[in-house]
């Protein structure tokens, strides 16, 4: 009977709706994840046009073959709009993968149109397949993980069109309900975990979702084990984090080479919890992608990029470009100044922790380098006191969080230490003066030595160091200042890193002997400010406070051993009639009133660069990972579609399905070294193969059924392909792992020949 030129298939509405839903369901979440700002109407129009094209050609059987050539022409035409810009699009896509979704905004219309055409074409192909459910499920799972990989917070609602298309495809006759239900449940569970609807749905669900995302981030971004810097690896802390004190023996082993103009404190490890014997980091171990705009607010708080105000920042020294070149293998820690911006490095993807430590995705190796714009600030910086006092009047929502986390002290600290802290800071009028007084006192009252003794067992380290030992090196001085600062109400934390002192050529050759520890004090409105209480720390690259006429830090003389007070006050009140001098000074004839208008080196009014600058030189390490992931998905889809059960399920009758199982058995026998002879009939070949297998598998029944199907002209029962499937399963069980691997490779390349 001659077919008409135009006829409407019964399945046309179902196919058209499924095609449209697949196109929209893929393009919508991808556009949101990639930061494409094209209007939604453009995507809907493109998806609708492709759907209409396939629907019209379905009604015209003679022209149906033109569908895919026309679609390829449309895809090629849309791709031509990006001609000459492919490298720029690739760089923007790399930025997007690494947390900068707005990078592709300039190509929104072109990419949205291209994605709409491609995915709607895929939807048209899947919707017309009788076995579309499982490939569509794989597509949805892959899309779900890609969206989560990009870190987009788009919500589960964007996946509803694809879920609806999945349910429609599940109505195909070859799909069984017992296979649909578990797969749909798994997809819905993954969707709920990776993209929960809101925080009000279930706090427990969101906590679980965060754990899943954190695990995915670790496995998708971090490629090697992360190791953090510690002074214990340099010889300054022989017993590691288990115990402060004891003799130090640092080696003169090269670590890195720094290009900088002056003495620079490069922060490595930040610790907040002191237990009386050692420091530890009690903050969360989660890492945040540094260039991700979702974390700008967190970055601003942790790294003080926007603190203090622009007017105050203009009074500070300008930032300088600092280059770090590794001269030895090291931890994954990136050594940076306390305030920095514009961090860039070849194949180094920066992350930061809630403690404001910065890490790479791998351990640093010899020859690695990175560059950043650093601001070298400390308590000795000229004019810093005035800047801190001016910033104190500005609101600081983050200050309450800092006080809650960085004022804790253990119970074992002795009352004599409280009394000493109060005595040192009793004349100080401001928080900055209290910090400067503690720093100056430790620099002058205790000598520096590497031959420090071990504290007695069970004795608080700071109490033993300040009251009994009275000598030590950087870890002792930094710990003592951090503890006493907390006693007088100053949020403080312990820092480990390197002190780089450049030569005349502005290059600092850092060895393990330059490993160092210092303190950071938090001032409301200004942020964290480093203080280095170790004696003589500025001898090589700067000057001690007593040698700088413009420095306003006090220099009290060493106090005798204080008499313990039974009720020490953590923050002693000033005298009822305080001294008019802004800085504490034990000498009555001194006039320490600072002169901020005439510093020896007038600061440049240029503020440090903002952290809103786009990152430089985006890394490209994730491109191979994404490519391998895509190839793996395509390979898995190819093997799935070429599986004998799937090919047999797509056949229209039992005779054709039986032929599929024979071809599968024939390929298995070939991989086992049993090949048919030239001109040998299938039944004869199977009979001979059964003999070579020593009757381990009954193949003759398959040969007889195949002869009936080919030569009798009658239709077989549906039970015949099922018996053939059991024969193939028994044959597959006899294969060795190597033979199975050969079979999969053969099937991947050639498929199943019919």
Low-confidence stretches: 221-225, 539-623
Q: Strand order across the biggest sheet?
A: 7-10-6-1-12
**SS elements, strand count:** 14
Structural class: alpha+beta
* Helical amount: 40-55%
- Terminal residue distance: 27 Å
Question: How would you explain this protein's 3D organization?
Answer:
With 754 residues, this protein is an alpha+beta fold. Among the domains are: 208 residues, no CATH class; 135 residues, no CATH class; 109 residues, no CATH class. Helices cover 43% and strands 10% of the residues. The strands form four sheets. Strands 7-10-6-1-12 form a five-stranded antiparallel sheet, with no helix packed on it. Strands 2-11-13-14 form a four-stranded antiparallel sheet, covered by helices on one side. A three-stranded antiparallel sheet has the order 5-8-9, with no helix packed on it. Strand 13 and strand 14 form a beta hairpin. Helix 1 runs antiparallel to helix 2 and helix 2 packs parallel to helix 5. About 12% of the residues have low confidence.
